[in-house]
Amino acid sequence: MQATGVGRTDEYRVVAPRVSGETVDPERFHLAEWVVSCLESRGAARPGPAAVAALAERLTTRLLSRGELAFREGDRDAGVWIVRSGRLELAVKGRARPLIVQILRPGGVDGDIQKLLGMPFPYRARALEESECLTLAPLDFEELLGEYPEMSRLWMSTMAERLSESHDRIVGMLGRTLTQQSARLLLDEASGGVVDVPQQKLSEMLGVCRPSLNKVLKELEGHGLIRLRYGAVDILDPYGLAQRAD
Q1: How many whole angstroms separate alpha carbon 92 and alpha carbon 13?
Q2: What's the rounded Cα separation, in Å, for the pair 206 and 193?
Q3: Disulfide: which of 135, 148, 207, 228 matches 51 by Cβ 3.0-4.6 Å?
Q4: CA quadruple 220, 222, 227, 230: dihedral positive or negative?
Q5: Domains of the chain, earliest start first
Q6: Separation of CA 46 from chain center
Q7: Which residues does residue 235 pair with via DSSP β-bridges, in sequence order?
Q8: Taking a C-beta distance cutoff of 8 angstroms, is the pair 191, 105 a contact?
Q9: What is the 8-class DSSP label of residue 12?
Q10: At what angle do helices 178-189 and 238-245 cross, to 10 degrees?
């Protein structure tokens, strides 16, 4: 589930506190601040330095090469993952081809809901490019939320927001034409006016064959709403595209 609020850490950066008689490594503390900024929610206050330091002590950095698996379907002990850089593709096995559930970008969080519900991952995660992730082991995640109520409130609030966004996205796709679904997907996946996802991946996200999607994209391009190029789609008229999505 994708988190929001990326890129707002510097304004909150403070001196790393002392925990258990030792000063937390400043770089680790800065990473923890970044994670907290990604979790920021309308419904919870920002945790204090002690809670951020506790998060910093528990974070582990994982570097993934392109195509490397972060976790598999059925995994129960993969812990919580936060994408620091790069992208992770979440996908399940389909009858003919994989079905992409979501693409996690920097600031994206996954695994927390599965851990709290005691359920295995229903999909696998694979790095689309060289990626850096921050992870929390299952026990560390439980201890963090149990010992620091302000961190727990923040995490629960952001999970509720992500679940609400996913629900709205699913409902928004029901009963829509492929043109409407494609336009909505492009708007949801765009960053800086660019959808850096190949058409094959987009078709897998919609659960349709590539020729069907390509036909729709060509129509949208013909109306001047988008521009197709290798491995990406440029959004030229977001307002017009939003009208096609409704």
Answers
A1: 38
A2: 20
A3: 148
A4: positive
A5: 10-170 (2.60.120.10), 175-245 (1.10.10.10)
A6: 20
A7: 226
A8: yes
A9: G
A10: 140
Q: pTM of this prediction?
A: 0.78
**Half-sphere exposure of residue 214: CA atoms within 13 angstroms, side-chain side:** 9
Token reading at 183:
């336009």
Give CA–CA dist 233/49, Å, rounded: 42
Each of the 246 residues of the chain gets a pLDDT tens digit; together they read 444 444 444 444 444 555 544 577 889 999 999 999 999 876 678 899 999 999 999 999 999 999 999 999 999 999 999 999 999 999 998 666 778 889 999 999 999 999 999 999 999 999 999 999 999 999 999 999 999 999 999 999 999 988 888 888 777 777 889 999 999 999 988 888 999 988 988 998 888 888 999 999 999 999 999 999 998 999 999 999 999 988
What does the chain come to in residues? Answer: 246
Other Cβ atoms within 10 Å of 145 Cβ, number: 19
Q: Look-up: residue for tokens 């920021």?
A: 40
